[in-house]
Write a structure and sequence with these properties.
Distance between the termini: 50 Å
Mean pLDDT: 84
Strand content: 5-15%
Strand order of the largest sheet: 2-3-4-1-7
Number of helices: 10
Number of domains: 2
CATH architecture of the largest domain: 3-Layer(aba) Sandwich
Largest sheet: 5 strands, parallel
Low-confidence stretches: none
Helix content: 40-55%
CATH topology of the largest domain: Rossmann fold
Shape: elongated
Order of helices and strands: HEHEHHEHEEEHEHHHH
Structural class: alpha/beta
Radius of gyration: 20 Å
Length: 240
């Protein structure tokens, strides 16, 4: 087995599916199981903290569970760029390309950071082409196609858009509530239904913010003997 940087905690079982991410979750499961086929790269698109990276790692972890001998590489776009630069400087591009283009599954996170970096985009595009010709799978995540005015190369964008594009929306209240209950148990916090519902209602946005507020609440609770109430929650986190 060959794997690079997969987080074993980020699995499908640990991923909360809701109204805003059910299609993305389904498509990711299909890729992990080999259902979509090699002719379809998968692009997972969405804002900060909505679960793109978790889903990317879940694909890799599930593929390994199904096939422990699967060859998998997982890169952030920065890692991809840095390793390519090192290979160029060391005159080892053939080795770099071979290490990428012989895997069963290539995972690349945050490709929006490749915007404006033509050589990196060209190398990534050629890697996708080579992997597809060999019947292999590519999954990438992206927050936006623009970064300070720079854009993703049209050829690369066209190749990715020729596959399956799934968007993860910001979590709705029901998903935030499920996430909050799960994380409260993990952090050892006993929240009443009233507090949990208010917390999930007023803490909008991404799930990182929900967990960040929960960690703040845990730190306060650990140093005081006060019961966690809605009024305390409002005062401590300045939630309206």
């Amino acid at each position: 087995m060959k794997s690079t940087g997969l987080n074993p905690m980020q699995t499908f079982n640990a991923f909360l599916c809701g109204a805003g991410n059910s299609f993305a979750c389904s498509a990711a499961r299909d890729v992990a199981a080999g259902v979509l086929g090699s002719c379809h790269p998968l692009l997972i698109y969405g804002g900060v903290g909505v679960g793109k990276t978790h889903l990317l790692h879940a694909v890799g972890n599930e593929r390994i569970r199904i096939n422990p001998l699967a060859l998998i590489l997982n890169f952030s776009s920065e890692q991809f760029m840095n390793e390519m630069i090192q290979a160029l400087r060391g005159n080892k591009m053939d080795r770099f390309r071979n290490s990428i283009r012989t895997v069963d599954l290539l995972l690349v996170d945050d490709i929006q950071f490749m915007a404006g970096k033509e050589a990196t985009q060209e190398e990534f595009f050629n890697s996708i082409e080579a992997l597809q010709r060999a019947g292999r799978q590519v999954v990438a995540t992206c927050r936006t196609m623009r970064d300070r005015g720079a854009v993703i190369d049209e050829a690369l964008l066209s190749r990715l858009c020729g596959g399956v594009i799934v968007r993860i929306e910001a979590p709705d209240q029901e998903t935030r509530l499920l996430f909050l209950r799960k994380k409260a148990i993990e952090h050892g916090l006993d929240l009443s239904e009233e507090v949990a519902l208010h917390f999930a209602t007023v803490t909008t946005g991404d799930l990182r913010r929900v967990e960040g507020n929960l960690v703040t609440l845990k730190a306060f609770a650990a140093g005081s003997q006060l019961e966690i109430t809605v009024d305390l929650l409002r005062s401590l986190l300045r939630l309206e």
